[in-house]
Each structure stands twice: as C-alpha cells, then as structure tokens.
Amino acid sequence: MDLPWHLYLMAFLYIVAGINHFRSPGMYLKIIPPYFLNPGLLNIISGAAEIILGFLLVLPFMSHFAAWGIIALLVAVFPANLFMYQNKKAGFGLPKWILLLRMPLQLLLILWAYQYT
C-alpha cells in the first residue's frame, strides 16, 4: 500500500479514539447534549464508526469513502463540542479558552480528512 504516512496517522488516531469510547464510556456520555436520545447507543455508534472508518482509511479502495464518513462523523459530533463549552460539568473543568479552541480544531480535522476524499 502506497498511502501517505499522515493517512496512517489519521487512521490510528480514529481507531484509538473509537476504542476509548468503549474503555471510558462515561467520559463520552457526559459530553452528549441532553436533547439527544439514548446517549449510550450514540456513544457505541460513534465509537464503532471511528474504529471502522479508521480501518477503512488504510484500504486504498475505501479511503475516499472513509474520509467522507469521517467528515460526516465530525459534523455529527460537533454539538458535543458546543455542549462542553456551554456546560461546566461537561467541560471537565477545562478552561473556557481550551473548550473554545476545540471548535476550530474540529474544522481542521474536517479539512485534514477532506484531503483524502
């Protein structure tokens, strides 16, 4: 496979993040806004999606679709970033500026994924 190293890095990061949804679900459940139904199921779906999309990224015939999937996932989980910023408990006591910085970081992650579409 002749894929760029940063694609492997991205895949690794999403796989590890996805696994973490199952290792530490409480952390993710805390940041799911209360207006979403069944946060436990949403945590499982998003964690599984990260793992699957991470693996698909390194398959040359699937990386294009996986990158679009990651973009969709990042858009879908953006409300959690907003909720973390607005809710002190969901923000894990982090300073507001760090929580605010997460939002443009999400855009950078989208742009990173977009280069593989």
Automatic annotation (TrEMBL):
It comes from the Bacteria. The keyword Membrane applies. The chain crosses the membrane at residues 6-23, 35-59, 65-85, 97-114. Keywords: Membrane, Transmembrane, Transmembrane helix. This is DoxX family protein.
